[in-house]
Amino acid sequence: MKRLYNRVKNLKYRYKLTLLVIVAGLIPVLIIVFYMQNGMTNILHENEVDSLENTLEQSVEAIENQEMIYENLVDYISYSQDLRSILTTEPESDYEAYVEYANVADPLLQMPQIYHKEIRGITLYSESIQVAHGNTLMPLSEAEGESWYHEMDDNSSLQWSFRRGSAQEITACRRFYDDETTAVLVMTLDYQATLEPFSSQLRDNTGGIILDEDGDVVYSGYSMDEGYTPAKPESVEYIMQNYTYSAQEMDGTGWSFYIYRPNEVITESVWVLIARNIPIFAVCIILLAIVGYMFSRRMVSHLEQLTENMNQIHMGFRKVTVSSDADDEVGVLIRSFRRMMNQMNRLISEVYEAKIRLQNSEMKALQAQINPHFLYNSLSIINWKALEAGEDEISKVTLALSTYYRTSLNRGETMTTVESEVSNIRAYLRIQLIMHDNSFSVEEDIDLDVSGVEIPKLILQPLVENAIDHGLDMSEREDKLLYIGVAQEGENVVFTVRDNGVGMEQQKAEEILTYHSSGYGVRNVCERIQVLYGEGGTMEVKSSPGCGTEVKIRIPKKAEKASK
Question: What is the pTM of this model?
Fold first, then answer.
């Protein structure tokens, strides 16, 4: 987490703002998705419950309609006078009893099976019947061995019972009395056919349970995919805790019907709907990222320009390039920075000008202390004495020194011509060649068309001295070369001083022109050019280890004369 925090902390402000916009946009999107999921889950759950209730209501209603039909049939048969006469009249013979049973009881009890296929049979049990007549008339003693007989109450209402297992069946029983006999009418129904309106609805991950008045399971079934099947399919408590369900009680039988479906089916439907909307969410996120990036780029562009401008100023370029007319905090910061840099440049210019004036004053004071005529006469006497003594080498040095000081002093002027500067550097090099025993050679390339152009004096001597002391003297190569060039490029004059000495790294070479340089001569030349010509005058250094160093000065041809 700390590493992630540091990475986020070190991101550019533009990316931080983009992330902020994305996160700020994703939060409401996620809230909407969460709200939609909950809302759709609730809606689907309500719809599912309504669907289950409608399905269960239709199923129970269909079974109730059948139950009413069966009850009407039982009532019709129970109150049939023909049937009651059979139970109350003593037949004269067994034959007459058989004929009466066949002609009256059998049609009455067997006819309903023709119109209602789910009726397996209708049997009348009575004390007045001594011998069983097929499956329609039975002695009451035969009923005492049946399970439904012991479940019957003493009242005469229609009572329902069931049997599960291999011999599945449903029975509707009714006990009726009169003054002379007691009888029980039993209608046996097909288990599957009777409950078919309910069981047929148990498909597509749906289950159902039917309980009687005592809580015993009349029916239990389900049709579910693997993973949804109930662990306790006949436990209502388990179903109510783990499934979405609907319940209804049937009035005639007193049975309770339960239909249920897995909760996961509902939630899967929600996720399917959300999955269909994922492309829309993805497009929203992409648009949010694009808008966030464009917004952050718009907001941060001026800050980035300000930062870049500050880095350039740190490298020595003091020109302010960023600007803003906005009234926000960034615009105020940029304008304050511009005012600060203008004030700083003004102060630097004043310091430079004061420094140049001080240098000029010191130089003029030094020149005033030196009597040029006395110096020239002394050097002339030394030259004649050397010629009289036959010391030609001393004579050459004396003449070169005389030329060097004459061009350097230049009668107290701060400006000179290209021709005079070249003469000065030639005299300086004659002295250096004698001092170095001609250990290096000099190559010149002077454009005579710029001989009369005015330039600051003594701008080449520090460069040549630096090239000899730090470039050629430290090199061990035999072909040491110092190149001096003066050329015209458009409206500029370009001075080049190049050596093939030891050279240096480019970064170190660039520091020669800045305040980080320990040397004063070359940096002084750079400062004078900047003060005199501003942006019109430039000075650049190129170098590489083992290949030497090249310094170029570029100044305008039509330069204004410096003040004396």
Answer: 0.49
